[in-house]
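Human: I wish I could look at a protein chain and see how it folds. This is the protein in question:
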Amino acid sequence: MWVIAGLGNPGKEYEGTRHNAGRELLLAIEKRDGTKGKLFGKKALVVYPDVYMNNSGGPIKKLITSKKELEHLAVVHDELDLPLGKVKISYGSSAGGHKGVASVQKALKSQDFVRIRVGISGSTPSGKLKRPDPKKIVDFVLGKFKPSEQEKLKKAKKITSEALELLVTEGRDRAMNEINSR
C-alpha cells in the first residue's frame, strides 16, 4: 500500500499559493480518482499533514514504521527548480533546499522515498527555467497563482495524476521512466 502525502500549509490564507501546489493538486486528484482507502483502484493512504510545511516530517513519521513502508511513501510538493507545468519524480535524492522535504527526511532519517516535484517557477518563452529573485523567494512561494498561470497549472495536475497512477499501478521505476522522459 502506498502512503501519499501532499505537502502544504494549512489554513484559508494559504489556499491557492504556489507553496501549496503539491497539497492542492493531490487533493483534486484524490477527489476525482480516489475512493476511501484507494487511489486509481489500488490501496493507498492519502494524507495532508495539518502542520506548516516546514514541520511535515512529524505527522508523516507516525505513518511510516518500517523500511518497507518507507519504500512506498510518495511526497507531492512544490518545486522551485522546475517551471510551472513540469513535473518530475525523484527517489533517494536530497531535499534541494525544500524545507518541507528536509523535515520529512530528518524525521524519517532517510531520503529513500519518492518525491513528486511539481514545478512552480516561471519560464522563458523557450521554456527554460526562470527562478524568482532569491531575495523574493518567500513572497513568491507564498503568493497565489495568477489567472494567466491556470493553464500551466492544469497541465501540472494532469501530469501529476498520470505520475501517481503509474506509481500505484506499475511501480516507481515505470513512473520515473515515463514521467521524467517528457
User: Anything to note?
Assistant: The longest helix spans residues 150-170. Residues 30 and 39 are 7 Å apart (CA to CA). The domain at 2-180 is CATH 3.40.50.1470 (Rossmann fold). The helical segments are 21-33, 57-61, 67-70, 99-108, 137-141, 150-170, 172-180.
